[in-house]
Amino acid sequence: MKRRSLYLAALTLGLLLTPRAGPLRATPTDCAPIYQDAAWTISTCPDDPSVPAAMEVWLDGSRQPELAARLEFAHVTNGGTGRPTVGVLYSSGFVRLKPGADPVPPAPFGASAVLGPAYWADGVYHHSPTLNRVSIVTRGLPGGPLRLAISGTNADLDVGYDVVLPPPSPDRTRWHVTQRYTATAPIPLDAARLADHEGFKLAQLSTMFISQNEPCEGGGDGCHDSDGARYIAADGARRQVALADVGSGWIFSSPAALGDVWLDALHSDDQSWQGNTPNLRLALDGMPQVGTVTPRGWISATTDPDQDNVGLWLHGDGATSWEAGQSDSMAYTILAEDDPPEPWIALGLRTGLTFLDFEEQADCSFVHDPGQGTTGSLDTIAGYTDTALELSYDLEDADGNWAQIRCDFDPPLDLSAYDHLRFDWRGDPDAANSLEVGLIDRSGASERIFARGYHHAAHRGWWGQLVVPFSFLHPWTVGTTFDPTQVTAFMLSVVKDGDEDTGGAGRIAIDNLNAYNVVSRTVPMDPSAPPTNAAATNEAATTEAAQWLASQQQATGLLKSWEEESSCVAHTYDQALALIVFSREGMWTEADALVDGLIQAQSPDGSWYKSSDCGSTGLPCVHCHKWEGDVAWAVYGLSRYRALGGAHPGAGAALEEAADWLAGGVAPDGCLEIDHTEGTIDAWWALQAAGSAYADEAEQLKQCLLTDYWDDAMGRFKGGRDWRQPYLDNQTWGAAFLRAVGRDADASRALSYASDVLRLPARGGCLSGFDGQAGPWAVWNEGTAQYLAVGGWDGDALAEALMAQQRPDGAQPGSPEDFAGGGVWVTQWHGVAPTAWLYFALTPGEPFPLLNRVWLPLMLKGP
Fold it and tell me: Which run of H or E residues covers position 332?
């Protein structure tokens, strides 16, 4: 079988059909392993038919004796019986990836990615970099990510790439790149090429298409490695092209800026002259703050299967020239997947009954209040993979204005076999308004509305899912109960709900209206073991996490909660997490200094404000309100500190004063005075750990949780006595509580509820995790780590996704995306809480003792 190889300077060799085409194929040469462990093999290849040996290779600080033309990365699969090559890096900056499965016959490589940037200047096309050094870091292996630091040049650009390669799964391999580039001389970019969006290519995909079904030289039923391309444009619609419909020329007939973060080279069938070659995706970490990115592509007619004749790229639409010394950077993932990326299906997030998918005629209409002056229209559009329905609206600027999609069902739907509504949706990043979701039933001759609002969420501008328990839908007619056997309509409204919302013009699209049954879910009854990564892997990630936490500690003793925040804000909850980490690691200097800071920040009544100014000696409050959950975590952190050996002379008194304040909030009915499930769980953990003096209050809170807040029918914790929105903290910390009081089966039910309702793919679909509430809106790394720390299932995959985001210095970002709305705030900033929870996820027994008995500290009270 012929295999594609990569070139250094194809233009010089005169081998390409056009400057837009890709590399040739050639026979590989012998390679020699330089590293091997239980999972990985890394090999260097000193020569290649199409690229020279240009790269110095350094392995964990030691230079290898020979230059390399390429590096190959293999990983175990099939229960350890196979070790296929899943990635290849060439000295020309080409990257080949394929999923980790090892089928018979072997899965081939197909399309390639090309590290950027590439550019046209003075009539010359500088297509790919020359890599001159690769430093390989293996300290996270075998279970964590492989890291590469790469440097090189592309004409008048110095380029560098920090690469993270997590362990592959059988159906996908990810390669994350942080790409930096600096001009070493003035670069006048070609104006005509810029006008065609090919003058400055940030990153590229290179592949081959000759025919869809006909055989070609080399065999196979189809003479192609890819057969299509797609992306979401700035207007929200999918642009998808079958390469068979193009022939030659521009792949996308009219340029349109990127609206989501990804561009796909599709392989929609399993046929190819080489076999079942993978799909490739380029997914940016986020949209650019300034300027736009435009996907483009070119196909050159050829009959030679050894010729890559298809190029796809992301074009940077900003600069027209570069000055010497000017620099920029970007980050993206190259994803190789067996099937075209459909992350909701891959995660099992479209089970149940899809009762409307807009592939056929639907009885849907635009509804509004004519007296408000709002306008709108409905149209079918190209959704993520197929047809969707979009509302274009203008709310003007008055609070309370609304526009609505209503879809009617005649005869009524019978959804009595289901208990949750779920549908795909996509908002508008430029229209930050609120949402209202509802179902309408029929009772006799009357229709009744049951709906729920989500404040300030309509600007979530990428395809995701919204999940709404039927029990969370609020009746608009007092005293009525939703009848799922008589559902006559679905409605989704966009509302200007107060000053925070923008009103004005926007759009929102929906697809795959679905109902599914959560109460009858399969519940694994045995608590999951901690992630099964090798101890050395966990130790590397946890040690680096603890060291980074220490780097955030200020002279006041408190830790700055978010590294990138302009001011020094120390959230009380975060200090408690860090104190547990320091105590577990035996970092007593840091732990004692942190206790000093907590004592200084403590209020005279024994409580703490939500946050303090960690840069001021007086530690004044920043967020000057008090929340029982924060105080509870401070009590719990001090208890764990003392149990693990902390000996600060003031810790006992600070703990007791705070516990007294917390115990004083227990009402006569045995619950907290506030109606809040999470706060009650926090307070139980705090008071049962604070000592026997608080045993009565802890017992009251236990009974409150089991009687008032536990939803036994659904097998989950509610948000409040009568508040049924799903929350992750309640299920994760609540599962630890349930195990501690001997209710393992209910703990498993709570975690499985979170898995069914709150799991989601990150924007771009390259990894997944959990959000803190439905929505779900965005991946929340802290919450994902919480789920792992208490024994959630699919632990290895989730742990690998978290460790792949961990910075080399140990810091963990809050999320792979930035989003604020719908009651959540997630950020790509690096923070104390996500870093501490990563530590806990990889450290068995922390922060909760997962025992079928109540844990008590070694020292209960006293100085």
Answer: strand 327-337
Query: How far, in Å, CA of 223 to CA of 211, rounded?
Result: 5
Domain count of the fold of the chain = 4
Q: Using the predicted structure, report yes or no on whether residue 52 has a pLDDT greater than 70.
A: yes
Same domain, 579 and 663: yes
Distance of CA 716 to the CA centre of its chain: 24
Report the number of secondary-structure helices (H) and strands (E) in the chain.
15, 45
Contact 285, 4 (CB under 8 A): no
* Same domain? 642 vs 701: yes
Whether this model's pTM surpasses 0.90: yes
Domain final position from 661, 692, 711: 711
Indicate whether 323 and 408 sit together in one domain: no
| pLDDT reported for residue 474 | 97
Q: Is 411 exposed, middle or buried (0-12, 13-18, 19+ CB in 10 A)?
A: exposed
Q: What's the pLDDT tens digit per position in 762-784?
A: 999 999 999 999 999 999 999 99
Helices (H), ranges, 691-742: 695-704, 728-740
Residue 121, strand partner residues: 124, 189
Closest CA to 96 of 87, 107, 108: 87
Residue ending a domain, choose from 516, 532, 560: 516
| Rounded distance between C-alpha atoms, residue 382 and residue 588, angstroms | 58
Q: How far apart are CA 591 and CA 557, in angstroms?
A: 9
Q: Return the amino acid letter for 659.
A: A
- What is the rounded CA–CA span in Å between residue 788 and residue 804? 15
**For all residues of the chain together, what is the average pLDDT?**
92
Q: pLDDT tens digits for 24-50?
A: 343 445 899 999 999 999 999 999 988
**Antiparallel, parallel or unpaired: β 249-250 and 293-299:** antiparallel
**Which among 348, 489, 472, 351 has a CA at the least distance from the CA of 417?**
351
Tell whether 251 and 315 lie within a shared domain.
yes
| Residue 859 maps to a domain | no
Q: Measured between alpha carbons, how far is 466 from 472 in angstroms, rounded to an integer? A: 13
Question: pLDDT class for 5, splitting at 50, 70, 90?
Answer: very low
Q: Residue 863: which pLDDT band, with cuts at 50, 70 and 90?
A: very low
Q: Is residue 532 part of a domain?
A: no
Residues 672 and 761 placed together within one structural domain of the fold? no
Owning domain of residue 644: 552-711
Instruction: Give residue-wise pLDDT tens across range 67-79.
Output: 999 999 999 998 8
CATH number of the domain that 689 lies in?
1.50.10.10
Q: Which two tokens stand for residue 189?
A: 């970019």
Residue 108 carries which DSSP code?
P
Helix (H, G, I), strand (E, B) or coil at 836: helix
Whether residue 2 is contained in a domain is answered as no
793 plus 703 within the same structural domain = no
